[in-house]
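From the pipeline queue, job 12 of 40. The input is one protein chain; the requested action is below.

Action: predict structure.
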Amino acid sequence: LRRNTLANNNGDGLNIRSRTSELETSLRENTIRENGRDGIHLSTWGLRRGAIVANQLTNNGDDGLDIRSSVLSGVRVANNTISVQTRAATKNVTVTNNTVTNSGAHSLTITTDLLVDAVDIHRNQFANNAGAGVLISSPITHQGNITVTDNFIGANSYGIITRGTLAVTIQENDIVFNTNAYAHPVPIEGVTPGTA
């Protein structure tokens, strides 16, 4: 899907669902805005070798990008203006050069039913959101390699929160002023708003 405008729909801007299929996707240079629910909603058994690049996902009612999958591997998310939420076993994912601002939710959320491994989050700007700059959560404590480098994470209700992953590297980020006074904080169990 390339160079389209999907706007002002009551539901999702783009919705792809399948319970049994494995999906390889390319979404580039689209404008997806002002939809009632998610900008892009992908729900499939497996999402592999995808590229979601240079899209403008703004002012959607729920998440800019919501991926729900049993397997997520080799997906590149870059140069978007988005909110990302992933619910899957997540491996080999790069999130780079994105700007997520002024949302009523978390900037970047990766929540899994199983494990998170080989996730690289770098050169993003996550600012002025009602939730966390980065929230990574797994129900199983495991080694999962997460790298968060060279990001600006500021003026959100929380900074970076990780749960369940032990091998997390957080370095060379600007994590500042995560005490957003202009938004009602999204509640996170056991975490006080303003926590970096």
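Job complete. The chain is about 0% helix and 55% strand.
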